[in-house]
Amino acid sequence: MTINRILGLENEYGISSSKNTDPITLSNRLVSAYAKHTFPNIKIRWDYDVENPLRDARGFDFTRAEVDYSVSTHEDMSVYNFILPNGGRFYVDHAHPEYSSPETINPLDVVKWDLAGEAIMQQAAALDLEENPEDPIRIFKNNVDNKGSSYGTHENYSTLRQTPFNAIIKHLTAHLITRQIYCGAGRIGIGQNSEIFDYQISQRADYIENHVGLETTLRRPIINTRDEPHADPTKYRRLHLILGDANMSDMATLLKVGTTSIILSMIEDGFLDDLDLEIAEPVNSTQLISYDLSMQKTIEMKNGKKFTALNIQEIYLEKAKSWLKNNNLSSQYRLVIENWESTLRDLKIDIYLLANKIDWIAKYQIIQKYAVDKELVFKSSILQSIDIKYSEITKNDGIAQLLRKSNILTQLFEPENIKDAILNPPKSTRAWLRGKVLLKYSDNISAASWDSLIFDVDKTESLIRISTLDPYWGDYESVNTLLEISHTAKDFISNIKSLRQTN
Amino acid sequence: MSNQIFGKGPGDKPETSETMKAFSKPNTKGIDSILDEIDSVLEKNAEEFVKGFIQKGGQ
Predict the structure, then answer these.
(1) Tens digits of per-residue pLDDT, A399-412?
(2) Which of A48, A403, A409, B50 gives the lowest tally of CB atoms within 10 Å of its CB?
(3) Model ipTM?
(4) Is A93 assigned a catalytic role?
């Protein structure tokens, strides 16, 4: 068995401007500047007909009155929404500019198309500056403002419907809580309003208040139960995780998504059925681990045993290595395993060995240098400004960007790779078809979503909906010839219909 | 010295933070080469920048 899971990442970016313009206006400015100046031919709307954010993975629907209103992203029809030629989506959500990566099937591609999202945000800010030179926009890839607000970095993993959701809750929770020791982005501030000035491993830990739940803006859960597979619901779920941090380190993103995907495969395979790693108090433990930079404190399991976060990660890694013996993993997943192992080893020896891979350590190293040289405490505005400036991506003067440029933070891609990922979708999923169709038949596409393309070929006839419910169909291999021989949208629709009839 | 400087709590008086003891000796060899560059990008008015960084809640 190989891992062929559909993966994706969504980032809500922090945004501000010198005139303190309201963030919804700023976010709209970004999306519209980018759409207008880079791909003026693409003028379509997002097709919301198939979305249902109130469907719960545990098998029931919430009515709108029962949940926090902001779960209903439907209502924001007026805000800007741009489907990208790389198959991803650039839009405004909850007063933040958001980038959703296109669907990919390996964790290295997740990193690449996430970096494309950063570059798109940066380019959008530059284009907006030409129109609004008096009010420059700044963009931050982080998750907290330290004044009570948090905004998300969401991971998406397709999982097999036949796998009981309870098995995911039971066997994945301990991983999600402990993986922060290598994918935390670091934060000065303890508590949702930074009531205490100290450094912690994760940006998001203090905003996690529930073990399992549907909501994303209040009572945020470790495991989110939104059940919108954007695929055949009898075959797939889409596990939507909202507890992770936004990472500037490529390796942190790779490990975050890669290890989680491997563990999901072991769960689907029944390989973790005997694993007894249920945590007694998952929410408290999330915070306890985030506050403990020494990584020595233990958390209590339901069976009474006590483990450190590193212990738990080592148990998962050992399981993965023995699972690997009977499974043929791709080179990308092998890279994940190798780095997972070396990271856990180095965390035990000396955390600074990982200042090239782990955000919370890279950031901490700089904060500590300033603290020592200038005799500053965490309450100091200078140290807090470093915390925020680490994640700025507006124009290549963010601290993590400087670390990347000097190879102090390891980079996994060349600039050409990122440029390619801005313009092209991954070849391995339906994102390829979405991105290519948008450009080729832009005059005749009226709307699109993750699992549909809506054509308006003849103004006198009704719209034609092409379903793309199978995320693996529409990849380069399956549709490239079709796209080449279909010179017009009309050709494409008739070719695709005859292809589907013969299959 | 670094043991002394990490403040915990809102007071100005520095005290040793428990969790810091594990590796209070900073290893900054790797970043010495770009400290000037980091200095040059830091906010001139850090206090105003930190206070002004206000976001709306998201998902």
Answers:
(1) 999 999 999 999 99
(2) A48
(3) 0.89
(4) yes
